[in-house]
Design a protein that fits this description.
By secondary structure, this protein is α+β, with helices and mostly antiparallel strands.
Length: about 220
């Protein structure tokens, strides 16, 4: 059985290597920054994970999950996103409140509980932030989602997810009633700063190019 710390390392490696919908190399410094730890501390843990055949790693080299490590990380992601879904849909937590709670719940080691939870939630495909939930076999649904920053003028879209789960960002979206499921049209783009003028049923507002880069949408 793995410790909570070891599981957190595996999940962090997975998230870094799969950001921006592509597989990326993971460096020690990048992992240390994400975990808010010193590189020396990270190196020590990577040696332990390598001994357990969970990562492929040589000192000063790139980090890669083994098939076992990847399977373990995906299962943690599955548990985390199912718990977030449960907290929002059944216990009425706001989407900006659930990440830290799910961080604790994901370490409960009961496969039967997670399968019952999935069944109880009617097998959701996405969590409250729009992130895909791996199924019981570790498979993730492919989608045609794009970043709002890549949206085209005058086209119609629907908000499907976010890449920034910070409380400040989620509250910013809530303030503008721009949450998951919101339909909108891009009515103008600013050449100067790349900002977008958005029109929804609630009205119009401007969103920066930086914020648009963290919002996932689907053309409708």
């Amino acid at each position: 059985m793995l410790s909570v710390t070891e599981e957190n390392y595996l999940k962090a490696i997975y998230h870094i290597s799969h950001q921006d919908d592509s597989v990326n190399a993971v460096g020690t410094n990048e992992l240390a920054s994400r975990l808010n730890l010193k590189p020396a501390t990270v190196n020590d843990m990577l040696k332990k994970l390598k001994e357990k055949k969970l990562v492929k790693y040589e000192k000063y080299g790139k980090i890669e999950l083994t098939s076992i490590g990847s399977k373990t990380a995906l299962y943690l992601v599955r548990k985390h996103r199912l718990w977030e879904t449960f907290l929002v849909s059944k216990l009425r937590f706001n989407w900006d409140e659930v990440h830290e709670i799910a961080e604790q719940l994901e370490h409960i080691n009961s496969a039967k509980l997670i399968e019952r939870l999935d069944e109880f939630l009617l097998y959701p495909l996405f969590d409250p932030h729009g992130d895909p939930i791996p199924d019981s076999k570790g498979k993730i649904r492919k989608s045609s989602f794009i970043k709002l920053s890549n949206a085209k003028l005058k086209n119609h879209y629907k908000v499907m997810g976010v890449r920034d789960h910070s409380t400040l960002f989620l509250k910013y979206l809530e303030k503008n009633n721009f949450v998951i499921g919101t339909s909108f049209q891009v009515i103008s783009m600013e050449d100067f700063d790349g900002s977008f003028q958005i029109k929804t049923r609630s009205g119009q507002f401007t969103i920066s190019n930086k914020a648009a880069d963290f919002i996932i949408v689907e053309e409708v």
